[in-house]
Write a structure and sequence with these properties.
CATH topology of the domain at 4-155: VC0802-like
Order of helices and strands: EHEEHEHEHEEHHHH
Radius of gyration: 31 Å
Number of strands: 7
CATH architecture of the domain at 4-155: 2-Layer Sandwich
Strand content: 15-25%
Helix content: 40-55%
Distance between the termini: 108 Å
Largest sheet: 7 strands, mixed
Length: 315
């Protein structure tokens, strides 16, 4: 039996790191390409990639690939897929299309035609079509168009994998978690070494490094799209989760704790600086008040002199 084909997307520049990571997770023949890594494997490899990959954004399962020249060819390619093997007409769907050098004039129309094909396939086979939900779909269908071929995927991740589940509040432009993990990986940092993040915003880089140091699976606190697909193997999934959790390391103080004395000294210095600033502001306020009083006194004296000399009021 040939392995199932998958594609794991990731931020640009992290493809070689992702290929190496996927190899350690059981992927077969990972091939880095711009924007991700194509690989083969069974559903266990798919489960592990979703749960344990720190770099992937999504893990897509390839269902079909076909040449095309126009929108009708894309429709026919989607109509030929046996969607009933993967989900039912009672589940909601969403279709997304990406393209590079596609000759089609409108990706929105291509998206509509793929959605029509999926619904027509269900209507012909079951007499009922699935609903479309663009906000919280139960099943996500992805299509990729290049200049000659259309490739159809099922999204096994659901929400993007950078959404780990631990972030509650974020700044205006939070760093995506998988990009932060990639930065840590590219830095050459190893667990056990002190880690300095001089541009720490919401702490994403530090949190990702801590999860690496403790071998915490990045997807431990979230659900995945493959759990809603037909043929989902709950027993195998539990085995994958249990094995990943068994590899976690016990909590321990981070190396940065060694600098706690210096941090306390810095806080004390900062506190003293604030007190000095308050005293300086008080002194400055007193001087400013004295200057203002002097100016008011000079103004009153000038007004009194002018009133006692009527000729001074004539220009």
């Amino acid at each position: 039996m040939s392995p199932q084909a998958f594609f794991a997307s990731c931020p640009r520049g992290l493809e070689p790191l992702l290929a190496e990571e996927l190899t350690g997770l059981g992927a077969k023949k990972p091939e880095p390409v711009p924007g991700g890594v194509a690989f083969g494997g069974d559903m266990r490899a798919c489960y592990r990639a979703n749960l344990e990959s720190r770099l992937a954004t999504r893990v897509l399962m390839r269902l079909a690939r076909s040449p095309y020249r126009g929108e009708e060819d894309v429709y026919e390619a989607a109509l030929a897929v046996k969607w009933l093997e993967w989900f039912s007409e009672t589940q909601s769907i969403r279709v997304d299309v990406n393209a590079i050098r596609s000759p089609l004039k409108s990706l929105e129309f291509a998206t509509l035609r793929i959605k029509d094909a999926v619904c027509d396939r269900f209507r012909a086979d079951r007499g009922r079509r699935p609903d479309v939900d663009t906000r919280s779909p139960e099943v996500r269908i992805q299509a990729f168009l290049d200049k000659a071929e259309v490739t159809l995927y099922l999204d096994t991740s659901g929400e993007p994998l950078n959404k780990r589940g631990y972030r509650r509040d974020a700044g205006e432009a939070p760093l995506k978690e998988n990009l932060a993990a990639g930065i840590v990986g590219l830095s050459g940092w190893n667990p056990g070494e002190p880690l300095l993040d001089p541009m720490c915003g919401s702490g994403t880089i530090v949190v990702e490094a801590a999860m690496m140091a403790l071998a915490i699976p990045p997807g431990h606190a979230r659900a995945f799209g493959f759990e809603r697909l037909a043929g989902f193997d709950r027993r195998r999934w539990n085995e994958v989760r249990d094995a990943a959790f068994a590899r976690r390391r016990p909590k321990r103080p981070l190396p940065s704790r060694r600098r706690s004395r210096a941090l306390r000294a810095r806080r004390r210095t900062r506190g003293r600086a604030r007190c000095c600033c308050r005293r300086k502001r008080s002194s400055a306020s007193s001087i400013a008040a004295a200057v203002a009083a002097s100016r008011r006194a000079r103004t009153r004296c000038s007004s009194a002199t002018t009133a006692s000399r009527p000729w001074a009021q004539r220009g």
